[in-house]
Amino acid sequence: MSDDLAIILTAGLLATACGLLGPFLVLRRQVLLSDAVSHAVLPGIVLVFLLFGSRAPLAVIVGAACFAVICVLGIEALRNTGLVHSDAAIGLVFPVLFALGVIGVTRFAGNVHLDLDSTIYGEIAFTPFRTWELFGVEVARSIPLLGAVTAINLVLLGLFWKELKAITFDPGFARVNGLRPVLISRLLLIAVAVTAVTAFESVGAILVVTMLIVPAAASYLLTVRLLPMVAVSVAIGWVSAVGGYGSAVALDASIGGAMGLVAAACFALALLFAPRYGRVTRLVRRARRRGGARLPVQG
Amino acid sequence: MDRLIDLLPLDYTESVVLIGAVILGVAAGVLGAFAVLRQRSLVGDALSHATLPGVCVAFIATGAKDAPTLAIGAAAAGLIGAGLILAIERTGRIRPDAAIGVVLASFFLLGIVLLTFLANYNNANQAGLDTYLFGQAAGLLKGDLEVMGALCLVSLALVTIFFRPLKAALFDISFAGSLGLPVRLLELAMTAMLVVAIVIGVRTVGAILMVAMLIVPTVTARQLTDRLSVMLALAGLVGAAVGSTGALISNSSGLPTGPVIVVVGFVVAVAAILLAPGRGVAWRAGKVLRERRRALNEGVLIDLETALHAGAPPTVDELVLTSGRSVSGVNRALRDLDRAGAIERDGDRIHLSEQGAAAVHALLHKRDLWSVWLEHGWRLELPDAREPDPRNLRQTLGDESTERLLDLAAAAGRPRGPGPDPAGEEGR
Q1: Contact flag B101-A35 (C-beta cutoff 8 Å)
Q2: Which residues of chain A fall below pLDDT 70?
Q3: pLDDT (tens digit, 9 = 90+) per residue, B183-218?
Q4: What CATH number is given to the structural domain containing A191?
Q5: CA atoms within a 13 Å half-sphere pointing along the CA-CB vector of A16
Q6: Residue A278 falls inside a structural domain
Q7: Contact between B259 and A261 using a beta-carbon 8 Å cutoff
Q8: How many domains does chain B fold into?
Q9: All residues at 6 or more sequence positions from B363 whose CB lies less than 8 Å from its CB, including other chains
Q10: Which residues 216-245 of A have a C-beta within 8 angstroms of B?
Q11: A267: which chain B residues are within 8 Å (Cβ-Cβ)?
Q12: How many domains, chain A?
């Protein structure tokens, strides 16, 4: 498998996994919770490494998911005191978990292969070099890993589509009908955490957060219904993966950074020119309407 | 600044870090309050990430790496980021949290692209720019401190001068507008203050941990006071205390400064949320427990009085049986009452003491008055609306209204209570 293909496939799978979850985060106003969760898993990764001395993907994912849950529960506990607004609760909990992780790294794991740079930036350019042998073929490790996560997210959406839709648009209705909104929303956040952690070592936290937020936000400007919104957000993710790789190679820049910036450019375009909600489109429409209203008076 | 560094009984680097942490704490505490109270604290998250491309651009444009240049770059990028967040929100469809997330991600990625760009061009001088990300307190220089201190003093002075308009805009933006205050300008000023705090702090603790530094002092101070002026001063103090404690702990333990400061801050904030008098979680729980205990004691006292009315002084078992309460509850209440001298024990039988009898009398009177209030209170015209307190109705209504209430009840054919109200007389 060529290196280019491995990188693009990795990014595309990441875009799919994130694009499936992102729209729900945007609609449920939990965008920043995803950012928080993806930072808060650091102590989980460090702890697993300290306890078992391994960076085996499964152990790391379990450890990180535990801390994602701790983060979400901590935020809810703070919010439920009624003394702290939810934004401040988020901003209190995730930095402290991240800080614990940083302390753990510098204190206990300073001289081993667990540096902050690789967890935070990751470097998608290195994915082709970390390989697994599957069925006699050597493939980049990130592809089966992200493929599995994408499949899990797809199954989650398939199984709980109705529930997710209900808790997103009408939590009260969902609760009355016994759809367990709290459970489902926690599942969603665990899925976000698992996606983030799996992607960390191949692409870095910041690209995960970007892929969760930006394509979904852009898609929200372009669509009105949920299913198209999910599809468009996955599609924008793929566009940024391919376009980002192309421009990174052309400009000799950071691949992950370029992919994220292409996604941001898509968002900017959608913000300005989306057929229904775009800023410019609306200005044009308003100008036209005004023009239309004046005509009969003149005539 | 030199003299201050010499004054501290620490070596040079440690003193610089300590002073830096204190300046950061004060600035983040006071200036962050304006974001936290408007429930926009995570804007701080986005803006502290947004400083990264600003720093890179400033470096590319000037080739200099001194503190003022980089601070100007960081501040400019922060302001642009803040403006973009507002602009994206104004379009209507995208909600604030998504706007914050988009700006955070894209600015930060831009910063990373610029960093790799610089690295590719093999500019050896660029090393150290990425400390803006994770912060590196040990890398602080005297020049940094001077810039931080100057920024902090100027912004604190501005907050003091423009305190009243800022307060109006903070709590009720439309009221501020109706007063003719320049609302847009004030909002911009509050965001600019946030940017200043971030520029001061981000070198020391890093972009991610900076958020906590903005939030911790305000959350802590908010639990302790309800007045903005007091709260701002407290937040500054809390910030300074957290910063210095964290810096000292990190000096003596060799742990990284930024994370230690944040952990200390988190502990302080949670302690305030739990223990703050009148508001804290533990404080409220304690109050509920005390109230429950009081209600239990009063109930058992009345049960005892009823039992004494019915016949011979009861034993504890009989009292449990007639009152229908749990054994442990009755026992605990009896212990309390014993300690208060309200009951006397005669073998295993229980009497009321003289003091206890008076207490029961007062209690029955209060309950009687409460049922009169429930039945006839609606006819009573009160000078103002108030929430009657069932524990002491006479106090909430005042003596005059209470007498009128009793008159009303008597006129409706209810016999007046059993003689004068002892609590009423004592109360005066």
Answers
A1: yes
A2: 1, 54-55, 109-137, 201, 291-299
A3: 888 888 888 889 999 988 887 788 888 899 999 999
A4: 1.10.3470.10
A5: 17
A6: no
A7: no
A8: 3
A9: B298, B301, B302
A10: 216-217, 220-221
A11: 102, 106
A12: 1
Whether residues B168 and B132 fall in one domain? yes
A103 near B CB under 8 A: yes
Mean pLDDT in residue range B389-405: 81
| Within a domain: B359 | no
How does pLDDT run across A171-228, given as a tens digit for each residue? 888 888 888 888 888 888 888 888 888 877 677 778 888 999 999 999 999 999 999 9
In chain B, what residues touch A83 (CB-CB under 8 Å)? 219, 222-223, 273, 276, 279-281
Q: Cβ of A256 and B109 within 8 Å?
A: yes
CA distances from B218 to B33, B186, B210, B281 (A): 5, 20, 14, 17
Quick one: B30 and B132 in the same domain? yes
Q: How far apart are the first and last CA of chain B?
A: 62
Q: Hey, which residues does A131 pair with through a beta bridge?
A: A140
Segments forming the whole domain that contains residue A108: 3-273
DSSP E strands: which ranges in B266-331? none
Asked if the Cβ–Cβ distance from A271 to B117 is below 8 Å, we say no
Out of B92, B104, B222, name the one closest to residue A35 (CB): B104
CB-CB under 8 Å, B134 with A102: yes
Considering the domain architecture, whether residues B130 and B54 belong to the same structural domain is answered as yes
B310 and B164, same structural domain?
A: no
Tell if the CB–CB gap between B209 and A95 is shorter than 8 Å.
yes
Question: Are B203 and B140 a contacting pair, CB within 8 Å?
Answer: yes
Q: How many CB atoms lie within 10 A of CB B427?
A: 12
Phi, psi dihedrals of residue B276, rounded to the nearest 5°: -55, 130
Same domain, residue pair B149 and B204: yes
**Tokens (6 digits) for B215:** 């939030």
d(CA A25, CA A162): 16
Which is nearest to A254 in space by CA: A217, A208, A207?
A207
> Which of A102, A210, A214, A271 to mutate against chain B (most B CBs within 10 Å)?
A102
- Which of B273, B223, B217 is closest to B246 using CA atoms? B217
Shortest CA distance from B279: residue in chain A:
A83
Residues of the domain holding B323? 283-352
Whole-model pTM: value is 0.83
Q: Is residue B259 part of a domain?
A: no
Q: What is the ipTM of this complex?
A: 0.88
- Best probe of the B interface among A25, A37, A41, A83, by most B CBs < 10 A, is A83
Q: How far is CA A167 from CA A172, A175, A188, B23, in A?
A: 8, 8, 11, 45
**Residues B415 and B340 placed together within one structural domain of the fold:** no
The alpha carbon of residue B1 is apart from the nearest alpha carbon of chain A, in Å, by 30
